[in-house]
């Protein structure tokens, strides 16, 4: 098996940093050593196959993006990244594991939905991948089958309080699924927005001629995120289910999470880079020469971008600092403007919902270190260590220690990354939600299970390198 020594860098974990060399043998990390360690009196660099010089750079556990939607059929089209293109883009950005959402639609057997997702991903991925299971139809059959997901290495399922007629579950269905969650330890993931109310508001806006993307954000009022978050928390409290609220964007939803956590409930929250940086006013309300007010369609996602004037973005950063929000995923769900987002020209309700960011999460979150919003250690915790613990991968992933998979990123804090569709972008999209973002920092080297897949700006990975990882139960309960 090939050996690699990453030498001269600062190894950063969720709890600290130290100058250290990292020795990799085959697919595993075998030692974290004093800098310049010797083997039988000889410099170790002379006895390994590959030396990666990380002088002046950070050596961090590979990113884990626990919320992606490769090839998701949604809004009358399919998310534009395949597992091949999406995982290649992820690797470029320093993410070495994704957890994607297998889909069970209403009337479909859960295991058939899962098998179809395995078929899409098998042999296609550049990096390791796991699945959560979307339960789009909570019925007697799916409730009976859900406990078996644990044996499949799928230890979390997502329910939707939004999207009536698509993935929506009513409160009775949520109660029953959460009872399974409480019994089995499967983590309930919740899309917490009151879909029935939002759909009425959206119809009223459209009827009044308010059809631009901006009104997507008006229809999806923060009050209905707060309300749904509260309802999910209370049903979880009643049943004893552990609850993870996905893509939190409203300040008031964070307050609900904080209150539940303060009374000791196993309730967790994820936010996404778009809710930290982007807003209703600047992005959903944008207009361009090419698209006019439809420019905002690039940022139509749910939950929506929120008003900066109301302080939501600030509250997300604060929640990340206080651990009322525990991690950052992308909710990567890319659609091109041409032929996809365009479906909603003249009616924001028909714009496929989603933003593509899988390639940029590590860089975007590192900006929080640069601006002083979070510490270097918290950056690693939010993007790798907590995702691993939350979703039952810790020890194998999310940490640089002997025995862990050799998923390692060498990050150059003095490097620079220009984000844009014609610059760094490898996602299968005709635009970037992050066009023009200039990043202090650069993903220099990416090692995925011992193989160097990104070396400077050379891509050395290949599809099929990535394997399905079976996950254990969450390791994050309080
Ligand atoms: O807009 C979004 N978030 N699209 C993906 C589906 C979901 O709700 O996560
Ligand atoms: Zn969702
Ligand atoms: Zn999602
Ligand atoms: Zn680069």
TrEMBL record:
It is an enzyme of class 3 (hydrolase). InterPro entries: Amidohydro-rel, Hydantoinase/dihydroPyrase, Metal-dep_hydrolase_composite, Metal_Hydrolase, Metallo-dep_Hydrolases_sf. The gene is hydA. This is Dihydropyrimidinase. Residues 58-453 form the Amidohydrolase-related domain. It comes from the Bacteria. Carbamylation allows a single lysine to coordinate two divalent metal cations. GO terms for cellular component: cytosol. Signal peptide: none annotated. It comes from Protaetiibacter intestinalis.
